[in-house]
Amino acid sequence: MQATSPARAFTTKKQFYAQFKKKSIAHELWLRFLKNKTAVIGLVIFCIIVAVAVAAPWLTSYDNVVIKMNIGDRLQHPSMVHWFGTDELGRDILARIVYGARVSLLIGFSAIFVSLVVGLVLGGAAGYYGGKIDSVIMRAMDVFLSLPDVLLALAIIAAFGNTKVNLTVAIGLAFAPKFSRVVRSAVMGVRDNEYIEAARSIGAVDWRIIARHVLPNCIGPIIVQVTLYVANAILTIAALSFIGLGIQPPTPEWGNMLASGRTYMRDFPHIVMAPGLAIFFTILALNLLGDGLRDTLDPRLKH
Amino acid sequence: MDAQQNTLEIKNLTVEYVVDDEIVHAVTGVNITIPAGKTFGLVGETGAGKTTTALSILNLLPAPAGRIVSGEIAVNGQDVFKLSPKQLLAMRGSQVAMVFQDPMSSLNPIKTVGEQIAEGMKIHRGVSDKEALVQATNMLELVGIPGSRVTEYPHQFSGGMKQRVIIAIALACNPDLLIADEPTTALDVTIQAQVLKLLRELKDNSRMAMLMITHALGIVAEVCDYVGIMYGGRIVECGTLADIFDNLRHPYTRGLFDSLPDIENRRAELKPIPGLIPDPMNLPPGCAFHPRCAYAKPECSRDFPQVRWLSDTHYVSCHLYNETLENML
Amino acid sequence: MVRYIIKRLFELIPVILVLTFIVFAILSMTPGDATTIILGSDYTPELGAKLRVELGLDRSLLVQYFHYITHLVQGDFGMSYVTRAPVLDQLRPRLANTAWIVASAMILCVSVGIPIGIRSATKPNSFFSQCAMVFGLMGVSMPIFWLGLLLILFFSVNLGWLPSSGMDHGLKSLILPAITLGFNYMANIMRTTRSSMMEAIRQDFIRTARAKGVAEHDVIYDHALGNALMPTITIIGMNVGTLLGGVVLTETVFSIPGMGRLLVEAINQRDTPCVLGTLVVMAICVAVSNLIVDLIYAYMDPRIRAQYGAKARKA
Q1: Cis peptide bond N-terminal to C231, omega within 30
Q2: Which of A144, B284, C102, C158 is deepest in the core (most CB within 10 A)?
Q3: Residue B1 — very low, low, confident or very high, per pLDDT cuts 50/70/90?
Q4: Using the beta-carbon criterion (under 8 Å), do A155 and C198 form an inter-chain contact?
Q5: With an 8 Å Cβ cutoff, are C207 and B100 in contact?
Q6: C137-185, pLDDT tens digit by residue?
Q7: Residue of C nearest to B172 (CA)
Q8: Per residue in C167-180, is it b (16+ CB within 10 Å) or e — as a string?
Q9: In this predicted model, what pLDDT tens digit does every residue of C238-274 receive, in sequence order?
Q10: Which of C27, C287, C290 comes nearest A155 by C-beta?
């Protein structure tokens, strides 16, 4: 065997490992992801939506354009002035769509964040400890899973009202059982690997093992599910707003825009086009992204 | 040999796989002849092209990747590649039957064992459901499984018994040719012995020809009349059992036999063949074995050696025998 | 097999109990006083207190729940705060309408989704298959309430072929709602069937069947499909709940007097017994349909059948 050059004295672990890395794993995964055309399209569309949502205050004025009624201009068809036309109160639909994105994305992500936290705790515990704890948690989750998300969210809203916070919590709790399942199976897949035993054998404490070894390896499926559930959450918010139990007018939300525009849609179909397309493209983008992430992160699923 | 007598004749078969724009030369110029009632052992390591050869006989190559480039395969004198799809279906299972390597996954989990045995009979012999079931029961008995188990499901059988069921399925319509692709590889040694015994008995009791694909020389010795050694998609040496076991000529064949541990001489060092099996996508030029061959000469890396007949039954493909037929090893 | 059914039926009861308890518990946390809602303008503190005792609202949660359940099994869903009449009277006619829509949606989804899924699995690179994949992706991304509006615009307003609301036109009334409700579901079923079929076709026993000389048609529809249906049925079962969630939206879009709309109205009117009643009925439906799907699955999978049926032997 030839001798390699002697290792330099390193002060941090990072430096020590850096000499061996050719390309980081993240870089390789990114390249793989890029090969999947539909996934990239999804990512691009989603980034556009987020960018537009973030830039909303610079693009148009909230009070003047989005909320303020302008009866004189009502129900105008799409034109150069109003790209998507105006709604029944004379407001520019495009501006409302842009602001609507903020609401949907904000609540969607917050709700899934709630789900994630609950799911990580419960699913992680169930998956890691197994046995009785697993049984108890999973049976509880199974019961909740029996109830469809919309209905569970409706029950919570019926009880507590439909403020933004309530909506977030309601949707978050509705998705938490599903997340727990995902986390649990990811954890179980990793738990039996030998490096966990190795970590235990050198005396690592449980929470440390979970945090530093188990969870990082579960990130793959979790990220995929996060993406898909955010899509679902946004859809649920729009649905709830559509039936009047979500975000209330005059706050623009794609769902409630559809609901209020509905009365006029026979003669002014444009009024239901833009909000619907917005919801559709957002969810499509997230689905494409989620599928793409799934293909990238789990090579076995490719045939 | 009279052509009518030969159950199987493969002439100059060349098969490739096209994978992502790369061509894999799985089988090149293979010739195999099996007379009725005889067993041909096709020996080689994984990736040598044995299974591909077998699948070609029944035209079962995975489409669209697998392509038969050239060659002829005749079963009982009939050219397989000229058969209509219907005729091909009629041949599969009745004239030619196949037993695959992994018994655990080769049976349909949601059908009873009896149904799976009976299916072939219903298709090829047109027997009624009831009659087929009766015959299925008999087949089970034939392979050494109690006939009462005909209504059970595959998951209720152990690995060895599953393989017997698969043999029963294969034999259900009295095929003229049985192709057995590593039938015992996935089984425990004791079960292996049972299955081999069964195959030998079946062979002895009928005029069924058998193509036995294996990488174990021990099995070859037990069951085969003829042997073909395959490497890198070609047959490098072929002959009767005696030809190969007593008078081997090809360096690879020599390597195979040498790598068997000698139970008599426990102190001897193991003699593996140096190097690795070639990647079918990237076969070495000339003779595929030359990088690992102790006898390699310059021409070995240029041209593939011609076939030299050493006797009526024995031929070898090796540049060592270009000038002489004497044993060069 | 019968033993398995009975076992699962027994397990259904605790599930339903827990589900109803959860819903009950959530709703009991509604802030505000039920008595003010019921009495409305007639409210006085004394009447309110009396009513509270009468309704049992001063007891503990568990006692209230017990009270509710014992009445529920006798068919008494309590009294609506709004109509002052038994909730059951409101539920009954609505249930039929909802049942019609859900049933037609399911039939549509299964009879269209599964064959398309199979077809696109057998020829994965064909034009048909690519179209099916695109349709599948669109299908799961489509918000069904928007789809309903589009369908109304096109088929009712533009073409005038189909009614845009209500249930008065017999079967015609069902078409658009069924398509709307089932759209996501159908796309899901199609995608799942496709991937399970592709997975099944790759299995070794398919190779065995082909080697036996089984015709390709039977290889697909007899050998592969039987195995592919099982994961598909699981997915179908897991998503029945989403159908019930979608029913709320569909009935709103098409103005159909069903359970979904009743639920929304009841929530808006703060009619807790009615909300409770609707949710309970829906929860029971979901639990029962999950059970049915499980039973179908168990019937199809001989491994489970063997466990509970004939003696299982391993040689």
Answers
A1: no
A2: C102
A3: very low
A4: no
A5: yes
A6: 999 999 999 999 999 988 887 777 777 777 777 787 888 899 999 999 9
A7: C212
A8: beeeeebbbbbbbb
A9: 788 888 889 999 999 998 888 989 998 888 888 888 8
A10: C27
- B21: tokens are 């724009």
Distance CA B219, CA B229 (A): 14
* pLDDT score recorded for residue C182: 92
**CA angle at B81 for the pair B75 and B83, rounded to the nearest 5°:** 80
Asked whether the CA dihedral C219, C222, C227, C228 is positive or negative, the reply is positive
Chain C residues closer than 8 Å to B100 by CB: 204, 207-208, 211
Question: What rounded mean pLDDT belongs to chain B?
Answer: 86
Distance CA B16, CA B26 (A): 5
Sort out which chain C residues have CB atoms less than 8 A from B110's CB and list them: 226-227, 230, 300-302
- Tokens 């593939």 belong to B304
- Other C-beta atoms closer than 10 Å to the C-beta of C250 total 29
Instruction: Report phi then psi at C30, rounded to 5.
Output: -55, 120
Residues C101 and C247: their CA atoms lie apart, in Å, by 8
Q: Which residue has the tokens 């499980």?
A: C294
Which residues of C, range 45-74, sit inside 8 Å of A by Cβ? none
Given an 8 Å threshold on Cβ–Cβ distance, is C204 in contact with B155?
A: no
Looking at residue C194, its pLDDT comes to 92
Name which of A229, A233, A227 is nearest A293 in CA terms: A227
Q: What is the pLDDT of residues A10-60, one digit of tens each?
A: 456 666 665 555 556 777 778 878 888 888 999 999 999 999 888 888 877
Spatial distance between the Cα atoms of A71 and A58, rounded to a whole number of angstroms: 25
Q: Which of A292-301, B101-110, C151-160, C295-304 has the lowest mean pLDDT?
A: A292-301
Distance between B92 CA and the closest CA of chain C, angstroms = 4
To the nearest whole Å, the CA of C215 is away from the closest chain B CA by 7
Query: CB contact, 8 Å: B123 with chain C?
Result: yes
Cα A208 to Cα B111: distance, rounded to the nearest angstrom: 49
pLDDT digits (tens, 9 = 90+) for B234-269: 999 999 999 889 888 888 898 888 888 777 777 777
Instruction: List the Cα angle A96/A271/A111 in 5-degree steps.
Output: 45
The predicted model scores a pTM of: 0.81
| Contacts with B60 from chain C: Cβ below 8 Å | 207, 210-211
Residues of chain C with pLDDT under 70: 31-40, 304-315
* C160/C152 Cα distance (integer angstroms): 9
B111 touches chain C (CB under 8 A): yes
Full DSSP string of C40-95: GGG--HHHHHHHHHHHTTTS-HHHHHHHHHHHHTTT---B-TTT-SBHHHHHHHHH
Closest to C292 in 3D by CA, of C250, C209, C236, C228:
C236
Closest chain B residue to the Cα of C313, Cα to Cα: B156
Measured CA to CA, the distance from residue B180 to residue B213 in angstroms comes to 6
Inter-chain contact A146–C140, Cβ cutoff 8 Å?
no
Torsion of Cα atoms, C17 then C18 then C22 then C23, to 10°: -30
Query: According to the model, what pLDDT value does residue B97 have?
Result: 92
Q: Which amino acid is at C100?
A: W
Q: Over 60: is that where the pLDDT of B283 sits?
A: yes
Instruction: Please state, in angstroms and rounded to a whole number, the distance separating the CA atoms of residues C255 and A24.
Output: 56
Sign of CA dihedral A168, A169, A175, A179: positive
Distance CA C139, CA C185 (A): 8
Q: What is the DSSP string of A251-290?
A: S--HHHHHHHHGGGTTT-THHHHHHHHHHHHHHHHHHHHH
Q: What is the CA radius of gyration of chain A?
A: 24
Q: Is A279 on the interface with C (CB under 8 A)?
A: yes
For chain C, say whether A223 makes contact (Cβ under 8 Å): no
Q: Per the CB < 8 Å rule, is C252 touching A243?
A: yes
